[in-house]
Specification:
mainly beta; Methylamine Dehydrogenase, Chain H; five-stranded antiparallel sheet; four-stranded antiparallel sheet; globular
Length: 374
C-alpha cells in the first residue's frame, strides 16, 4: 500500500544476479482501496505460456472490493486485463486471492477469491475459470455456514489432494463455532459443486483455525498433494499449524502438527508450501510468526519426509527491527528458485510497520536467505 491506501503492487523479475528494482508496478484505482492487500500468482489463466498475477483490493467502493488479473508476457504492462467485482458494500471481496490450478481440466489455470464480509460475515469464495479469452463471471461460488464465520479469510489451491488429475482448493473460516475455526477442501472435476469434500475443524474455541491455508505440496512423497492450515491464536497466541496428507479418500485428521515457540508469537498466521528446499524430492513447508520477540518476526521451514514423525525445524528466517519501530513479519512465502542456482528455494518476506495515526503500512521486505537451524 501507500500513504493514501490507494495501494501498489510490484513485480521483480528473477535473474542471476537479481536486483531490487521493480520491473512492473501496478497501482490501485483510488484512495482507500487497499490495492495489493492480497497478491498471488494466478498460474497461466489465458494459456499463452506466461504466468499471470492476481491482486486484491478489498476496500474498493465501500468495501465491496475487487480483484485484478494481469497477464504475463514478454513485455508485461501495468494495465489489468480482467477485473472481478461482484460484491456489495462490506463484502470485502478480494481480501484473499490465489491461483486455483486447473480445477475443471480444460487446460487453463483458474483463480479463487475470498469475500470474507459477505452476508454479515458469513463469507464467500468465488472460483473463476481461465480461458482465452477469460471472463469475469464466477463459475463456482462457495458460501460459509453462518454469520460471522469469516469464510474466505484465506483461500488457496490445494494441489491435487485426491489424485484424480484435477486441482482442488482449500478455504478457511476462522470465525465459525466461536472462532474454533474450520477449513474446507473442494475437489475439482469436470462437474463441480459447492459442497465441501473434506472439512477440518480446529481444536478449541478462539483458536482461529483457518486463518491461513495453503497447499503443502507433497510432503510425504506418496504422490498426493497435502494441505497446511494455521491457527494463530492456539494456546494464548502461541499458534499451531496442521498438515493433512492427501489420498484417494483424504480424511480430516491432522497427520503432522507444528507449534509456536512461546505465547503471543502468532505462529501460523501465515503458512505455505516452501517448494523442495533441500532437493530431496519431498515438498517442504514454511510457517510465519509475527511476534517471535518484541522486535523480530520469524518464519520456520520444515522438511518433508517419507516418515510420519514429529517435524524437525530445519531453517529459521528472522526480520529484525532496523527502522526504530514495531516490526512484524506478516507473511513469508516461497518464491521457488528466483536466482536460478538450482540449489535452494528463496523466500519473499513481508513486514508491517507504523505509518502514523495508528495505522500500519505493508512492505515487501526482501528476498531472504534461510538460516540453518542446528
Amino acid at each position: 500500500g501507500n500513504n493514501s491506501f490507494t495501494g501498489k503492487a510490484y513485480i521483480y523479475y528473477g535473474g542471476a544476479p537479481m536486483n531490487n528494482v521493480a520491473d512492473v508496478i501496478m497501482t490501485g484505482e483510488a484512495v482507500d482501496n487497499n490495492f495489493g492487500y492480497s497478491v498471488s500468482s494466478a498460474g497461466d489463466v489465458n494459456g499463452d505460456g506466461y504466468s499471470d498475477v492476481i491482486i486484491g483490493a478489498y476496500a474498493r467502493f465501500s468495501l465491496s472490493g475487487a480483484a485484478y488479473i494481469y497477464f504475463g508476457g514478454a513485455s508485461m504492462n501495468n494495465v489489468y486485463d480482467v477485473i472481478m467485482a461482484p460484491g456489495s458494500a462490506d463484502d470485502f471481496f478480494g481480501y484473499s486471492v490465489s491461483e486455483a490450478g486447473d480445477m475443471n481440466g480444460d487446460g487453463f489455470d483458474d483463480v479463487i477469491i475470498g469475500s470474507t464480509g459477505y452476508l454479515t460475515g458469513t463469507g464467500r469464495a468465488y472460483v473463476y475459470f481461465g480461458g482465452s479469452p477469460m471472463n469475469n463471471y464466477a463459475d463456482l461460488i462457495m458460501d460459509g455456514e453462518a454469520s460471522n464465520n469469516s469464510f474466505g479469510t484465506s483461500v488457496s489451491t490445494a494441489g491435487d489432494v485426491n489424485g484424480d488429475g484435477f486441482s482442488d482448493v482449500v478455504v478457511g473460516a476462522p470465525g465459525i463455532s466461536s472462532a474454533k475455526g474450520k477449513a474446507y477442501i473442494y475437489f475439482g472435476g469436470t462437474s463441480l459443486n459447492n459442497d465441501p469434500d473434506v472439512v477440518m475443524t480446529g481444536e478449541g474455541f478462539q483458536n482461529y483455525f483457518g486463518t491461513s491455508v495453503s497447499t503443502a505440496g507433497d510432503v510425504n512423497g506418496d504422490g498426493y498433494s497435502d494441505v497446511i492450515v494455521g491457527a494463530q491464536v492456539y494456546s494464548v497466541y502461541t499458534g499451531k499449524a496442521y498438515v493433512y496428507f492427501g489420498g484417494i479418500s483424504p480424511d480430516n485428521i491432522a497427520d503432522v502438527t507444528m507449534t509456536g515457540e512461546s505465547t503471543y508469537s502468532n505462529f501460523g498466521i501465515s503458512v505455505s508450501t516452501a517448494g523442495d528446499v533441500n532437493g530431496d524430492g519431498y515438498s517442504d513447508v514454511i510457517a510465519g510468526s509475527t511476534d517471535y520477540s518484541s522486535s523480530t518476526g520469524r518464519s520456520y521451514v520444515y522438511y518433508g519426509s517419507a516418515i510420519s514423525a514429529k517435524p524437525i525445524l530445519n531453517y529459521v528466517i528472522d526480520v529484525p527491527n532496523d527502522q526504530g519501530g514495531f516490526v512484524n513479519l506478516k507473511w513469508a512465502r516461497s518464491s521457488y528458485d528466483i536466482n536460478g542456482n538450482n540449489l535452494i528455494t528463496d523466500y519473499v518476506v513481508y513486514r508491517s510497520y507504523p505509518a502514523g495515526g495508528g495505522q500500519f503500512s505493508w512492505e515487501v521486505r526482501n528476498v531472504v536467505p534461510a538460516t540453518k537451524r542446528s
